[in-house]
Amino acid sequence: MKTIEQNITPGYQNPLDKSFIEFKNVYKAYGDNKVLNGISFTIKKGENLVILGRSGSGKSVAVKCLVGLTKVDQGEIIISGEDITKLNEEGLNRIRMKIGFLFQNGALYDSMTVRQNLAFTLQHNNKSLNENEVEAAIKEALQNVGLEEAIDKMPAELSGGMRKRIGLARALIIKPQIIIYDEPTGGLDTITAREIIELIRSIKLKYNATSIIITHDLTCAKYTGDRIIILKDGVIKAEGSYKDIENSEDDWVKSFFEQ
């Protein structure tokens, strides 16, 4: 069996320099708990950005702010030239329609088959599709994650890795401009985690979506991220390629890689 280093080549660097997502001096606190303390970073179109950080560092709150589920206290979040912090709920919903989510546990509807799970998401985003168009989109999404045969299965019949794949198919079926991966390899064995990493990389090449990958898994970070930021206490402690960060002289950053 090939090692992950042999099986996955390093990610390509997108030649586009224009920022697609930008956080500008973003603050967020819950009472006295200051979760984000003026973070600023950009993501280029087609880039995979990995956000690393221990529990409570602000990773999940940053993503909630990005999709408008949490309002920032101060700062701007720009998506494709539009400051989403100024949008009303209708405007936010328009932005959310462009975002695909892979949740940590797959978050499938247990009472629906795989086909029904995917159809529900697609029809929620695009009510104008006819039955044949929906079926074709479902089969394409399942083909992209290698699970065409699971179309009529119930979530309870799927392994953890299969649930992640179906969750990813559901994210892809809307042809998103942005994909958010929440702990994509969390709770998986080494071989299944490697398969998910390979899927993330192949999806980057096929869809050229702009992706944010929240993870604790350094292997996932290394092989899926074009760039990595590490959050500590709501601020960016390190930013750069995996190699840049791994070779940091900062004691705290070095300790992160010695877990």
Automatic annotation (TrEMBL):
A single GO molecular function term of this UniProt record: ATP hydrolysis activity
Pfam families, A to Z: ABC_tran
UniProt-listed SMART domains: AAA (SM00382)
Keyword Ion transport carried by entry: no
Gene3D superfamilies documented for this protein: P-loop containing nucleotide triphosphate hydrolases
Residue intervals of the ABC transporter domain: 21-258
Keyword set, alphabetical order: ATP-binding, Nucleotide-binding, Transport
PANTHER family: PROTEIN TRIGALACTOSYLDIACYLGLYCEROL 3, CHLOROPLASTIC (PTHR43023)
Protein name: Phospholipid/cholesterol/gamma-HCH transport system ATP-binding protein
